[in-house]
């Protein structure tokens, strides 16, 4: 048998989409903060529920499930995701979970990690996404860094504005640098598909 490449084109596996949500829509998302209490973010794996590991992560989170108050966020996100997947990933995806609403206050961070763990036996995380809810001017520090080219000495550094979405392959190492002033808010999601 003669092996052939599945795709002729190389997909970047990373993109930054600007102004998906307007400033007014971001303010509507802020209202979700009143629906649930934030708790300390945890680090987990396939075989654990997660645990607090401050050497890896210090942040506050709550979960946003689709309902009559948040369904519009999921709808908008899914529309953008379909286009982004076609143009940048071409991944076999079929599921996404709830959003993780994440706060980074002063001196909080998330060190280098990958998201490619799976919480389901049949599915794996393929695409990760961050919807920024804070403008770059709302906080100091807190830059998002991503290793997209395999060179840990040359990470891509981003400071997206409120309403922007960053999409990247879940196996790419990334981090949120420590916030030194202000509060950085975001919604995070992971998109799943069958193991290839």
SS content category:
mainly beta
Please give the largest β-sheet.
Answer: 8 strands, antiparallel
Could you tell me how far the N terminus lies from the C terminus, measured between alpha carbons in angstroms?
A: 20 Å
Q: Ranges with pLDDT <50 over ≥5 residues?
A: none
Report the C-alpha radius of gyration, rounded: 17 Å
Number of helices: 2
Instruction: Give, in order, the helices and strands.
Output: EHEEEHEEEEEEEEEEE
The total number of structural domains is 1
Please tally the β strands and state the result: 15
Average the pLDDT over all residues and give the rounded result: 90
Compact description:
The chain is mostly beta strands.
Task: Give a topology summary.
Blueprint: E1 14-17, H1 23-30, E2 39-40, E3 57-58, E4 60-64, H2 71-89, E5 95-96, E6 99-104, E7 109-113, E8 123-132, E9 139-141, E10 144-146, E11 156-158, E12 165-169, E13 174-176, E14 179-182, E15 184-194
Antiparallel strand pairs: 1-12, 2-4, 3-7, 4-6, 5-15, 6-15, 7-13, 8-12, 8-15, 9-14, 10-11, 10-13
Describe the structure.
The structure is a single chain. With 196 residues, the chain is mainly β. The protein contains 2 helices and 15 strands. The strands form 3 sheets. Strands 1, 2, 4, 5, 6, 8, 12 and 15 form an 8-stranded antiparallel β-sheet that branches. The two termini are 20 Å apart. The mean pLDDT is 90.
What descriptors fit this protein?
196 residues, mainly beta, Jelly Rolls, eight-stranded antiparallel beta sheet, five-stranded antiparallel beta sheet, 14% helix, globular
